[in-house]
Specification:
three-stranded antiparallel sheet, alpha+beta, 62 residues, 3 strands
């Protein structure tokens, strides 16, 4: 069973944290879920999540 991923929420959160987000590309099931164009780089869903977690950690340290 596939799970729901709110890619628009991820896009909004990345933008709210100052990242430039371009296209979100769905990829074939055997390659993962999505790729996000963030700050000129393609990130997998896992990499985008890690970036958001890093941003959150920095925000808590500030």
């Amino acid at each position: 069973m596939k799970h729901f991923i709110d890619v628009e929420l991820i896009r909004k959160t990345l933008r709210d944290r100052g990242h430039d987000v371009g296209h979100i590309v769905p990829v074939p099931d055997n390659a993962g879920e999505y790729e996000f164009e963030v700050d000129g780089n393609l990130l997998s869903l896992i990499e985008a999540r890690a970036l958001l977690e890093q941003d959150a950690a920095r925000m808590h340290l500030s």
